[in-house]
Amino acid sequence: MKKLIPFCFLFAFIGSACANTNIKQQVELPFTGERGYNLYGGNNNEQSIVIKPDGHTEITAITKGGSYTLYKGKYADRFPLEDGGYYKVIGDSMIELDSSGNIKYECKMTPDFDNPDIYVEPMPCVAKFYEDESL
Q1: What are the backbone angles phi and psi of residue 5, rounded to the nearest 5°?
Q2: In Å, how far are 2, 18, 20, 30, 100 from 9, measured between CA atoms?
Q3: Where does residue 44 fall: left (phi above 0), alpha (psi -120 to 50 degrees), or beta otherwise?
């Protein structure tokens, strides 16, 4: 029995250290609930992010043709996209990053589609969140 006591203390200490490690790995949620944003400008280019209190996150694109899921899983520092880039929540904004982690540009659409000669300065892919009950 005396040999077993030190083993039990060691096991309790290791278990406690492992539990503390899991707590430190949790990412702080920027908010809970649903927010809308529009990285690309124009109509029918809305997107939404829903973050639940348990960290489950879903990012959805809402277009004229319907909606589709861009990301579904635990909240993370970066949300992977099909093109190798990422979405990232910073403060009250969604930012699109390229595969190297740099802010992407050219997200906003040209305001005059009828005149291809008009040059529009590339804009960073950053959009403020808004709360919209129609989402």
Answers
A1: -60, -50
A2: 12, 14, 17, 38, 46
A3: left
CA distances to 9, 10, 44, 98 from 16, in Å: 10, 10, 50, 39
**Angstrom distance (rounded) from CA 135 to CA 28:** 24
Distance CA 105, CA 126 (A): 9
Under 8 Å between Cβ of 2 and 51: no
8 A C-beta contact, residue 56 and residue 41 = no
Torsion on CA atoms 84, 107, 43, 70, rounded to nearest 10: 10
Give me the residue label for tokens 């030190």. Answer: 6
Report pTM: 0.70
Is residue 98 within 8 Å of residue 91, measured between CB atoms? no
Mean pLDDT split into 10-residue runs, the chain, 135 residues:
47 47 65 92 85 96 88 95 91 94 79 61 87 63
